Amino acid sequence: MVSKYIYYILFPLFYLGIAMLGGYFTSLGVTTWYPAIAKPFYTPPGSFIGAVWTIIYTLSSISLILFVNAAQGKSLFWPVIGLYILNGILNALWSYIFFTKHMLFLAVLDAFFIWITVGLMIVYVWRYSILSGLLLFPYLLWVFFATFLTAMIYKLN
Predict the structure, then answer these.
(1) Which overall architecture, per CATH, does domain 4-156 show?
(2) What is the pTM of this model?
(3) Euclidean distance between CA atoms 77 and 102, whole angstroms
(4) SS3 for 135?
(5) Exposure of 148 by Cβ count < 10 A (0-12 exposed, 13-18 middle, 19+ buried)?
(6) Non-local CB neighbours of 156 within 8 Å, separated by 6+ positions
(7) CA–CA separation, 7 vs 108, rounded Å?
(8) What pLDDT does 7 receive?
(9) What is the DSSP string of 59-86?
(10) Which residues are within 8 A (CB) of 132 and not within 5 positions of it... i.e. 6 or more apart?
(11) Cα separation, 146 vs 140, whole angstroms
(12) Which residues fall within 8 angstroms of residue 137, CB to CB, at 6 or more apart?
């Protein structure tokens, strides 16, 4: 059996990998294509968005660790781990779709699915660790805003 403490390393590394991959995809369009498109006046600056994602990934990693500590060996353990992984993949994929491929409508759909997966993560971890679920609420709120913002950018372009 794998020590549960290995997750204290694996989960932060997972989120670091997602952040790096998303950052790479973002870098492919953020200085060229992104400045040229129409955006709503309430679009936050890139430095703010980066700080928010750093906080969200940190909270998500802690949430996942708390869940593992509370639910290891329980029936939903692996499906919930899979949900976190799916969420991370969808998150990195959004940067690819939006900044690299410039497929705005598909980015709106992806953002919506990110929001759905965060909601499901909250529902499933809550029964094992309320704190684990609470740590995901900033993510849920941010993705709600990000989905709306992406939809407005799609509409303007």
Answers:
(1) Up-down Bundle (1.20)
(2) 0.92
(3) 36
(4) coil
(5) middle
(6) 37, 38, 39, 40
(7) 32
(8) 84
(9) HHHHHHHHHHHHHTTSTTHHHHHHHHHH
(10) 63, 64, 66, 67, 70, 125, 126
(11) 10
(12) 122
Tens digit of each residue's pLDDT (9 = 90 or more) over 72-125 = 888 888 899 999 999 999 999 999 999 999 999 999 999 999 999 999 999 999
Structure tokens, 88 = 């991370």
Residue 36 burial by CB count (10 A; 0-12/13-18/19+): exposed, middle or buried?
exposed
Element (H, E) at 4: none
Report helix, strand or coil for 42. Answer: coil
Q: How far apart are CA 45 and CA 64, in angstroms?
A: 29
Domain-by-domain residue ranges, the chain? Answer: 4-156
